[in-house]
Amino acid sequence: MSGKTGAGTTEVDVVVIGAGAAGLMCAATAAYQGHRVLVLDHANKAGKKILMSGGGRCNFTNLNTTPEHFVSANPHFCKSALKRYSPWHFVELVERHGIEHVEKAPGQLFCADSSKDILGILLTECEWAGAEIRLKTDIRRVRQTASGFALSTSGGSVQCTKLVVACGGLSIPTMGATGFGYQLAEQFGLDVLPTRAGLVPFTLQPDDKAWLAALSGISTDVVAQTAGASFAEPMLITHRGLSGPAMLQVSSFWTPGQPVTVDWLPQVADPFAQLVEERREHPNRGLERWLRQYFSQRLAAALADQFGWQGNLQQFNNERLASVAATLKGWAFKPSGTEGYRTAEVTLGGVDTDAISSKTFEVKTVPGLHFIGEVLDVTGQLGGFNFQWAWANGWCTGLAL
Ligand code: FDA
User: Fold this and answer.
1) Beta strand 3-4 with 241-243: parallel, antiparallel or unpaired?
2) Which of 31, 134, 183, 289 has its CA 20 to 30 A from that of 231?
3) Which domains does the chain have, with CATH numbers?
4) pLDDT tens-place string over residues 170-181
5) Partner residues linked to 11 by β-bridges
6) Are 17 and 178 in contact (CB under 8 A)?
7) How far apart are CA 247 and CA 233, in angstroms?
8) Which residue is closest in CA terms to ligand 1's atom 13?
9) Do 378 and 72 contact (CB within 8 A), yes or no?
10) How confident is the model at residue 8 (pLDDT cuts 50, 70, 90)?
């Protein structure tokens, strides 16, 4: 598809930097419009994050996607693309390729078999549309020219009229993540809002780690809250800290130094009333026994031990029972931090959307330059929203080029 000039320079209409979710979607869509499209990626394989996503089954969309599922300094920015390319559009593509899928939780669609199927769809679409993908290609320099952009790469020079930056965020550097997209944004005078790891496990202060690490592997349903954001999901205790969907979700709203509150008993509206009743009926029973209705034996014992809830219920006056109930409904801890980009699913912050058209994803001040996907300051919650964002704005950009 690409043409080579006499000087060994490749000339195409569109270069997409990044053979990830957004880049491949954009490349196929643009190539179907008749553009000569070249995708460049420094990795040895396309779509590595797609392959590792959703525990190997890729949670490829969420049927309940709304703009409220995204974190951004400009909450309106994602609206247009999400409306134009809905989860059903992607489901239609998946079904057209004969890929079976399952709804594991309400709205969350996963591959029935393997994430490879989703990557397979994108690579097939690129091939059918005629988009070329060049891997193991380092991009050394990008320059604006009179007719577009000139790239100097480890595989030679490339010239294009449109350049799409789809090189993702900083999470999981071992999978090829770099800050190159942010560098390019800065090179072209755009603001990059501070980045931080999102959808990431918390690490704990020594006091909390001391009792929780021994419970590593236990998962329990909680409601976790921070900064006004609240999620009813399982929490997983690990030997490093607290993880599981509840913690991953709140991590995207957490700022260092802030507490996270955990309701250990979301299924019990009024534990105080229940405890008073239990004391009346079974004054000689230990409180731990009551806890065992809701928690595993190990967790019940650890909670009783940590918070000093030993003894028979008759030894608990109302004030003490109220304190037990308050702790169970609102245990607050201050994370020491997060596991960072090493394990984060996403990067919060990024290229400031103020400078970008929400319809074409073109930089308002640099015609022909587009930013898409996770490199932008748009981050989805857990549950397939991040891929839906990648498909939606990749598709919109591919059409707009
Ligand atoms: P993406 O990261 O997919 O692609 C960027 C591409 O750019 C990569 O191929 C990279 O090699 C390339 N690149 C980077 N720097 C470069 C450079 N300097 N030169 C050339 N190329 C460069 N989301 C979801 O909705 N459902 C899910 O199930 C999951 N699961 C999940 C699990 C794990 C472990 C992670 C880390 C993430 C998820 N996600 C997810 C998030 C999802 O993977 C992510 O939001 C999208 O992949 C973002 O798509 P992009 O195309 O923007 O970046």
Assistant:
1) unpaired
2) 289
3) 3-197+343-400 (3.50.50.60), 201-338 (2.40.30.10)
4) 999 998 899 999
5) 3, 159
6) no
7) 8
8) 167
9) yes
10) confident
